[in-house]
C-alpha cells in the first residue's frame, strides 16, 4: 500500500481461520489502521491479493458488507438518538440478509444485555459516558451478527470491569457465534488475554506472528532469574533458566533465597522485536 510515493505497507501476509482472534500490535504509524481499512473495503490497496470471506473487499457488495462488522477508532454522531432506537434502526438494514444459520439482526434487548447497556436502552447517545459510548460502538459493529468483525482499538476509555466484560464478549462471539475477530490494540495485556495469534507490525511489515508464548520463545535469552544470597539481591538473564538455577543450587545450596524465575513478558518481547525491526529499517 502506498499513499502517493510513500509506501506504508510492504509484505503483509496472513490468513485468519474461522472463530480465531487475531490481534495486530505495532507502534504508532506502523500501518495497523491502513491494513484494517483495506480489509474492510474502506481503502483501496495499491497492489496485492486480499480476500475476506472469499470476496475481494475492493469489490464487496452489500451482501458481503452485511456479513462483516466494523468498529472504527472513533465514531461521533447520532447524538440525539436513543440507544435502543438507533440499534433497532441500524439492525433493520440486516434483516434482508438473515439466513437459516444466522438470524439477522441481533434482537436489540439481547444485544443490549450482551454489551452491558441494558440500563441505558432509553438514554440519548449524547448523554452516554465515554466507555458506554464505546460499548455502543461495539453494539453497532455486531448488530448484524457478523461472521468477521474488525475492531480498531475497541477498549479505549474502558474501566477495568468494562474491559473484562468486553473480553468475555469477544470470547462469546468467537465460541458461540464463530465470529472471526481482527483487532488492534496498544494494550499488551489485552492482546495476551484475547489473542489466539498476535501479529506484530513494524514499518509496514509483519515482523513476527504467533501466540504470546511463541513470540516470547522466539526472542531468546530473556528469562530473568532473581534471588537473594547473604542479604544481597541478584538478577541474571539466562537463555536456559532451568540449568542456570540447577547450577546456582549446586554451588550455593541453602544460601539461595527468594528465588523468582520470570519468562520474558509480552511487553519485553514486543519492545525487542519492534526495536530490531526499526533498527534494520534504518
Ligand atoms: N490518508 C493518508 N495519507 C497519507 N499517509 C497516510 C494516510 N493515512 C495514514 N498514512 C500514513 O501511513 C502510515 C501508517 O498509518 P496507520 O494509520 O495505518 O498506522 P497505525 O499503525 O494504525 O497507527 P496508530 O497506532 O497511530 O493508529 C503512517 O506513516 C501514516 O502517516
From TrEMBL:
GO biological process: response to antibiotic
Keywords: Antibiotic resistance, ATP-binding, Nucleotide-binding, Transport
Membrane topology of this protein: Peripheral membrane protein
One GO term describing the cellular component: plasma membrane
Keyword Transport: yes
Chain ranges of the ABC transporter domain: 1-228
Locations listed in the record: Cell membrane
A molecular-function term among this protein's GO annotations: ATP hydrolysis activity
Source organism, top-level taxon: Bacteria
InterPro entries in the cross-refs: AAA+_ATPase, ABC_transporter-like_ATP-bd, ABC_transporter-like_CS, ABC_transporter_ATP-binding, P-loop_NTPase
Homology family: Belongs to the ABC transporter superfamily.
Protein name (database record): ABC-2 type transport system ATP-binding protein
Species annotation: Actinoplanes lutulentus
Organism lineage string: Bacteria, Bacillati, Actinomycetota, Actinomycetes, Micromonosporales
